[in-house]
Amino acid sequence: MLLQNHPGDRAFPVGVHPGSGRRVREARRGTPADRARTLGAVVVAVLLVLAVLVAEPWVLPLVAPDGLADPGFLLAALVLVALLAAAVRTVVGVADWALPRREQQHYLRAGRVPPLTLRQQQLLALDALADYQIGAWNHSLEHWPCEVRLAGRVPVPPRGRGPYLTLPLHRTAALRGAMDRDHKVAGTDAALDALGRAFLDRSVSLPFVDALGGPSRDEVLTRVSALTGLTRDEVAARGVPADPDAPARLLWAKDVMLTVAFARLAWMAGYLTEDQAWSHVERAGDVAFTLFSSWQEYWDEVRLGHAFTEDSLGAVQAFDAVLADYRSSRWPSKALPWPAPGDVDALPDSVRLMRVTAPGERTP
Predict the structure, then answer these.
(1) Is 225 exposed, middle or buried (0-12, 13-18, 19+ CB in 10 A)?
(2) pTM for the predicted model, two decimal places
(3) pLDDT tens-digit map of 258-307
(4) Which of 63, 142, 235, 286 would you label with 263, given CA atoms 20 to 30 Å apart?
(5) What share of the chain is helix, strand, coil (3-state, %, to 5)?
(6) What is the rounded CA–CA span in Å between residue 68 and residue 70?
């Protein structure tokens, strides 16, 4: 199983380097364990100084001619103890460099995380930009380590602390609260209903069609054109099929990305089984891989959907910056081949039929 970035950053895969040790130190700072380590380093340093003095009797007269009460000796001894303590802490800290990597390996073993097929990698890559933006995982169904995956196989310490120091473990209760807050979804039935309507009334393509078929058409075309750099005609063309047998592109790319993310989150929250989540991710992937022909084209269409939904030049500029950074990164998802297109007739009816038939009109 491929090791991924440490949650919260973008370096892929997680490695062993001084930055990893810094992350461990930050996680330990102020804890009883951290204070115990510091005290232990001081004790070791004092013992080393005493050992030198005891082992070499001729050292003491050299460094303290007037005996142990010599102020210069006491100052030198304190400085030496401090330096030795810092050195001991540094040596011990080197072992921490590998801790984030070891903890991720332990999570993968404890959770029995299966390796992904090529198809599954391609499906998760449809959500890669959102994952990259926040440093989430993109090479496993969970985009953060989650309690559901472990299923009680790792004991959870009291007071809400997880079994890992550097690896955040997202609690099922917290994820359910977030889903209710952000999506008004609480329960398996509600999650399945939301996914079933992902390409219907919960889609962002529907308000796009309404806007292009309504009285605000000119205003919307002008605004989205200004935000994206596309011409008004290019924006309007998303509402109609390129040929009679093809679906309109609308904002289905944005809907695909949102659906993949939602299905993953619903599984992490314990509302779906892993198979159910993959089934809905697969359904969304069929839409993307049938309507578009490359990753470049897909992300261009997601960008258009982002401009329409966010209605902000700053949001589009931020999207462009993250996309450019992602394309220059080492994430394996950006180098995956684009799959062969699926069967148009197998797409959801709303994807096949929804379109703007003429200004002021839409179907279905």
Answers:
(1) middle
(2) 0.82
(3) 999 999 999 999 999 999 999 999 999 999 999 999 999 999 999 999 99
(4) 235
(5) 60, 0, 35
(6) 5
Label residue 243 by pLDDT band (50, 70, 90). Answer: confident
Q: Which of 344, 210, 327, 349 is nearest to 288 (CA)?
A: 344
Torsion from C-alpha of 353, 359, 361, 364, nearest 10 degrees: 10
Query: By the 8 A CB rule, do 344 and 291 touch?
Result: no
* Burial (Cβ within 10 Å: 0-12, 13-18, ≥19) of residue 276: middle
- State the pLDDT at residue 98: 84
For the segment 44-54, what is each residue's pLDDT rounded down to a tens digit?
555 655 555 55
Torsion of CA 103, 106, 112, 116, to 10 degrees: 50
Other beta carbons less than 10 A from residue 227's beta carbon: 22
The encoded tokens of residue 289 equal: 């891989």
Q: What pLDDT sits at residue 247?
A: 95
Q: What's the average model confidence in pLDDT over 160-173?
A: 80
* pLDDT at res. 78: 55
Dihedral angle at the C-alpha atoms of 193, 194, 198, 203, nearest 10 degrees?
130
Tokens of 342: 């699926």
Across the chain, how many H-helices and E-strands are there?
A: 18, 2
- Backbone φ/ψ region at 185: left (φ over 0), alpha (ψ -120 to 50), beta: beta
The CA angle 70-73-78, to the nearest 5 degrees, is 130
Cβ count near 218 (within 10 Å): 11
DSSP letter (8 states) at residue 31: S
> Which pLDDT score, from 0 to 100, does residue 165 have?
82
SS3 of 260, please?
A: helix
Q: What is the CA radius of gyration of the chain?
A: 29
DSSP code for 116? P
Please give the mean pLDDT across all residues of the chain. 84
CA distance 302 to 256: 9
